[in-house]
Specification:
Layout lengths: L34 E2 L17 H4 L3 E2 L85 E2 L7 E5 L45 H10 L8 H12 L14 H9 L14 E9 L9 E10 L2 H10 L12 E5 L6 E5 L6 H11 L11 E10 L2 E2 L7 E2 L1 E6 L4 H4 L8 E5 L7 H6 L6 H23 L2 H9 L1 E4 L5 E12 L2 H8 L25 H9 L6 H12 L8 H7 L10 H6 L14 H23 L3 H14 L23 H9 L1 H5 L5 H21 L4 E2 H25 L9 H15 L21 H4 L4 H8 L7 H14 L8 H27 L17 E2 L7 E3 H7 L9 H13 L13 H4 L2 E2 L4 E5 L2 E6 L5 E6 L6 E5 L9 E16 L7 E13 L14 E4 L8 E4 L4 E4 L2 E3 L5 E2 L18 E2 L2 E3 L5 H5 L10 H11 L26 H21 L3 H12 L17
Amino acid sequence: MAFNAGRHIAPVQRMEKSNLPKPIVPCKPSGGYDLNLNTRRAAAPEGSQSPPSAADLDHFQWQRVSEQQQPQFHISDDCFDNTPCGQADPLPVKPSQPLGRIPRNFEDVPLSDEDVNYSDAVGAPPVRNTDPPESRIRKVLLTLRDTLQTSFNSLGLCRLYPRRPSFEPDNYVPSSLLSTTCPTVAQEPESDSSPSILPPPYPFPNMTIYRLMSWMNSGSNKKSETEVGRLVKEVILAEGFDTKDLEEFSVRKSLRELDNDPSGKEIKFPDDWMQASVTIQIPTKSREDEARPFSVSGFHFRPLVEVIRSAFTDIQASAFHLSPFKRLWKDPLDNHQERIYDELYTSDSWLDAQDEVQMLPREPGCTLERVVAGLMFFSDATHLANFGTAKAWPLYMYFGNLTKYARSAPKSGACHLVGFLPSLPDKVKDVLSNLPRISKSGIAALHTHCRRELFHACWDTLLDKEFLHAYRHGIVLKCADGVFRRIFPRIFTYSADYPKKVLIATIKDMGLCPCPRCLTPKSMFASLGSLKDMKSRFKNIRIYVNTNVIKAREYIYNWGNTVDGTKVDETLGEGSWVPVLNTFAQKLAGLGLDPFRMLVVDFMHECELGTWKALFTHLVRILYALPAGEKLVATLDSRYRQVPTFGRGVIRTFANNASEMKKLAARDFEDILQCAIPVFEGLFPAPHDAAVQSLLYRFAQWHALAKLRIHSESTLGFLDETFKNLSRQLRKFRDFTCTAFDTMELPKEKAARQRRFAQGAGLTNTSSESSGPRVKRFNLSTYKFHAMGDYVRTIKLFGATDSFTTQIGELAHRALKAFYPLTSKLDTPAQLAKHERRRRALRQIAEAASSFSSSNESQADSPAQSASEDHYCIAASRNNPVSLFTILQENDGDPAVENFIPRLKDHILYRLKKLDISHCDRTFTDKERSTVIIPNNTVYSVQTMQVHYTTYDMRRDYDTVNPKTHADVMVLSGESTPSHPYWYARIMGIYHVDTWLQGDVQVKKHLEILHVRWLAPLISHQSGMQRARLPKVAFVEESDYDAFGFLDPGQVIRGTHLIPAFASGRGVSSLRHGKSLARPNGELDDWEFYYVGIFVDRDMFLRYTDLGVGHPVALRRTVRDCFSLQSSAPVDAMDIDEGGGNGEGHEVDDDERVDFDLADDELEEEEEEEIEDEEEESDDDSELQDDDLGEEVWEEDDELSF
């Protein structure tokens, strides 16, 4: 950022060494700043701290050059830096000040009709005969396979359908281009068992009781103020409410009416709940005795085929995508084209499944179109109450045909609860303990075996003959557009945490090959991210050994061998297999299902509650291991509590001690990660502090990329490269930092270990166990770290991670936890199923009412606008008028209001005269200012402003800006050649005013204006993605004319998260000590520096690259040009090195040199491994298996609390 050409700014009134050159400022046509701070110590009021020395102040100067002497910047891919290569003599002083700092105009990308996802509005019925605007489709490319490609829209996106679709829920393709080969009459006989769902008040006698019962069976089980308000609005004040209808009202009677039809018979849905008993065989360890059958009752489930039938008759079926397609993106920056990965129905796995279905032999006499119903399963046990042992193990099913934005909404109705998996009852221990010749360890092994058998026996019931027939031959269903199609169900993903994954995959929990997707031995996990590790993942794909399992079961059930005996293990072979028949492999592997590939990565449990939690825990252990460790941990907790909040729950207040990690959910650990870099800065010794900072940056970068809701081939390449960099940093942290400290258990870890030992100790002595904390080492040899290498392949197969994250299933637990207080606590699964059925029935009745009312509407396909199309929104309230002179009087002597009225009129003149950025050097005279008319010298103050923007994934969102809480914003840099794409400002006031210019036609203009305090990036601070450092900014000094100013709200891009640089402390270097309008909450000083939180959310992160698909092209071009990067090398985004890559002006520190050496060594080793033969590689593997794996990370069954 730079100053205006030909303008002299009075130097800061501080001591200055005479032998130093005069400071200069890079040219800025629009007004900008750069801070050159190598050191900037906090200054404090008299009596608190010593003032800074002259040497400290020498480096804190504004720099200035003319436009003809604009500095040249050395560009490379290491970091961005604002240091000019040359300096110039100061320019002569001008008597008046120009307009000053003016950012470039920002124009967001409004979503046009062609960009809207109509399938998000799941309540809108489909329309097949309404042509969209002509501009939506400009050309169609056809091939022999009748491929259809739409034209590229305003964002550069198009769809490539391998087969011409016959139905398109987004109304993206006009009906004239849809396939018309599907018969609309041919059908299979429909079942007569479907109940007739009528509009309300069915099944109640009147609308009054219907509305009251609907209110009772929806919303929260705890009727709060909000629920009472909903009762008044939706029931009492609703049309048709009559108090006379309640004269003989009975809740129990009305519930019976809900459960039965008017004739008194129970309402039967085809997909209604069923109950079955599951029988497993318990081996007896005797050749003479047969296995003992053990029956487990109470397995409640819904037939999967009937659930599919019901889903395709549901109103949400109008939003189902029946034809998969590839989403292509032609980047408007350079017109290069690449693939987009977002939804399941745009993924490789769905496209392959559609091809496989088309190749199946046709049913006799059937010419129906064949489409796929994508099934996605989630299962995880959950506690139903805060106290007690009540829990349930629900099984949820979602349809991947529905967009993930609707699927992930808990109240969308997209979740289908299809079963409650039973747990092994305690009475099985009586059977096991009575077996002959069985030890205590044998009982535990046999109990685990029975638990595995029970799980797969339940799935054997779910995957019944009808489902297998549908999987092989399909089922004919009438779709939302009235066309009959043959639907083939296909299981794509099964999302679960690691203990459930090993149960599904029939492998040992944390065995020698603990990964459910590959056979990579645990001994190789430590080489995370290396070439050998990545080759092993692809080479050793897990394939079910059915023959070995059957033979092992013969040894157990026929020959009396133990389930964990040597004979059984040798028969099963390598792979950590268990002697349990995998139901998915037995029944569906022959039909194309890979039972191991469907076990997708679990970002929430494996990363936020897994790898990041493990890393954060060990960082706290290291702090405790340092001298004065408890004080350092207290400092860590104090810093986290001082981190400002951001957004609508994006970053929340850290109320408790973060180091104690008490009752933290995944979102809490995510917040800890996103704010960790400034918090941990300076807490470790110098050699290790830089390494920890780099590691935290790489982890946050990988976290942001892995969690993107939409991926391009560039972002996937970026993710892959980031994973490799992170892997090197993790190994370096393990080998360099962790070995330098003797880390022990945290107090909470020691207490938890002692509790576990006390519970299972029995008669043993616990004195040795409670003596002191144990040594704890950082362990990379865990499955959760290993799983980080599978994200790129998984995203290509199944779409972005938010499509199958277990967080969707965790959110579905809310309904069950709301049902539980309504039950009698007896036979909990049955009562939960009953309440789920009631809520489902009421939803179907409400949908029947909406379908009946919408049948007469002419246009029901218009999507609801979820966000304002305006870029910003400021209330026009006049409840708080403020006189300009009152502002000056109340803040007399405050630098924040110096020249307040002249600055304000300059800003108004600039906007009313519609000047562009090239007039930023314009100097208005007092005569021109006098032409600005502000009635009664009054402006109107408001408290908040909403800034609406289009996200990287083409959604509309907004930030709320409040001068008291969330006051920081970002705007485009106004420099002609910026070294950083954005300027930052803190809003001190939000105003709107009526004004006009005297002498012109008196047309009153209504202007919204922001009063801001500017911040500037530091010249000496090297930041960027290659340097692994956040951008660093500081407030402009009060002595500078442009320290305060006014801003057009339309130039605000969005809010930003500025985190204090805690290591630099507080001071008064920028603004004198005391209260000021620029300091909220009565603060007397400021944080000296701030870090820009680029990882605060995914949209913010991509604004520091040029990879945001939904971001404005002008903004992306500014970012790309600013960092001198090409989209083909996304890993180098946001990196400018003042040394130009030749060593000038940049000295590689020890931390980076170790990084480069490690990378070079690994590359040499990997190149040597590539030329080794298979025998040598197998020898290396056997040697690695003998290495010491270190101590296991304790696996906790974390419960996500929402």
